[in-house]
Amino acid sequence: MNSMGEKVRVTLWGSSHGPYVGCVLQGLRGGLGLDDKAIAAEMALRRPSAGIGTERREADEVIIASGETGGFSNGDPISIMIANKDIRSGDYHQFRSRPRPGHADLTALLRNPHHDVRGGGMFSGRMTAPLVAAGAICGLALKEEGVEVAGFTRAIGGVEDPEPRSLAEARASRRHPTRACDESLDFAFMEAVKARSEEGDSLGGVVECRIEGLPAGVGEPWFDSFDGCLAKAMFSIPAMRAFEIGEGIESSRISGSQNNDPFVFQDGQLLTATNRHGGVLGGISSGMPLAFRCFFKPTPSISVTQRTVDLETLDNVEISIGGRHDPCIVPRAVAVVEAMARIVALDMLERGGFIGD
């Protein structure tokens, strides 16, 4: 229910306003150096930036409670814990009877009347913190296989990056608070978020991510396809509403002769002349860069007055959401998308026998 993966498996636990959030990462081979600085760097990318993020500030110090000996993985399940300290639970009590539009309050309460509504409980974006830590560890394992994952912000609201971007440019987005690939876009994204935030409203956007260094042949047809497993992982991220790989939606608007990527033999490799397929054919990696996009809805917690229903009286009422919330989650979501991609990529490599004993 709260687990993902087969050979490399992550099980998530905790809640937004509980004492901890955490996960258990299973299937990681022993002998991997668990670089604390590398893990901390990924956690820092998920933190909110001044002016465009929530005022909730968590240290997000990663505690590895098991699976580590002397700074190396020992082959046992790795237990990850992150403390919740900056919480204001009083902001959320009303949502037990007056569910917030766009949130999981209503569906969670219908499924479980004892659901912890504080901060959204298990449904909160706070739950992505341990996933970023797990993804950072998987990234260290992928690095040893020559595989790299990097994402960036493709769009926020009506502001879009129109340029094709390389892995190096995606990696360079780490320098900018919005995860834009260049300074001018970073400024434009910032201004768009601030303007909507001043109105008490929010914005959504698009995260693009690349996986490079994958050998051809990773993945399975049908139900264990590489792109299918990626999509499932991405849809688990709160507020992620659509997924596309390669040309995605655009491929539905063009002809087959326009969409097909010709095969070529070049520099001793069998490649495709173009990469409209996004690196996956028939659910299996083609050896070309794997490129996909995740579309995020606007943050539903806004101070603009909205309509809801009082579940105790069944009256139609209005609600304005206070508290601390991101006016746009996209900049922080880039790190989460990268983490989930790393977890899936490592699992698929292990499942296919591409990592030696």
Description:
It is built from eight helices and 18 strands. It is α+β, with helices and mostly antiparallel strands and 357 residues long. It has one domain: Chorismate synthase, AroC fold (4-Layer Sandwich), CATH 3.60.150.10. The chain has a five-stranded antiparallel sheet, with helices on one face. Strands 9-8-10-16-11 form a five-stranded antiparallel sheet. Strands 5-6 form a two-stranded antiparallel sheet.
Number of domains: 1
Q: What is the CATH topology descriptor?
A: Chorismate synthase, AroC fold
Largest sheet: 5 strands, antiparallel
Which percent range fits the helix content? 25-40%
CATH class category label: Alpha Beta
Total strands: the figure is: 18
Alpha-beta content class: alpha+beta
Q: How confident is the prediction overall: mean pLDDT?
A: 92
> Any guess at the CATH architecture?
4-Layer Sandwich
- As residue ranges, the low-confidence spans are none
**Cα distance, first to last residue?**
30 Å
Q: What is the helix/strand order?
A: EEEHEEEEHHEEHHEHEHEEEEEEEH
Query: For the record, what is the CATH homologous superfamily label?
Result: Chorismate synthase AroC
Shape by Cα distribution: globular
Q: Strand share of the residues?
A: 15-25%
Rg value: 21 Å
Strand line-up in the sheet with most strands:
1-2-3-7-4
